[in-house]
Design a protein that fits this description.
With about 90 residues, the protein is an alpha+beta fold. A hairpin with a 3-residue loop joins strand 1 and strand 2. Helix 1 packs across helix 3. The longest helix has 12 residues.
């Protein structure tokens, strides 16, 4: 599984096209895939906010990513009260 520069993710012969924001969110979560990433970190690093504006943008983008990546070995998990985590289920 690999992210490409043209806003996609590839696993074997399957390529999924992502929006630039989805690509940035997935790349950030994968870079920190061994951690639970707090919401504020994502808002700051991916969305450019310096505070939590009370938006559900992360949840919306994660829902879109989960649908698009359903056939790939990537799990995007919500860790209640703590943040989010990406797991690659088969390297």
């Amino acid at each position: 599984m690999a992210l490409d520069e043209e806003f996609g993710v590839r696993h074997g012969d399957v390529r999924v096209v992502l929006t630039p924001r989805e690509h940035a969110l997935l790349a950030y979560l994968l870079r920190r895939r061994f951690e639970v990433v707090p919401r504020i970190d994502i808002l700051r690093e991916v969305f450019g906010y310096s505070h939590d504006p009370g938006t559900n943008a992360i949840d919306v983008h994660l829902a879109h990513l989960r649908r698009k990546l359903a056939e790939l070995p990537i799990a995007l998990e919500t860790v209640r009260g703590a943040g989010f985590r990406a797991r690659v289920t088969d390297a």
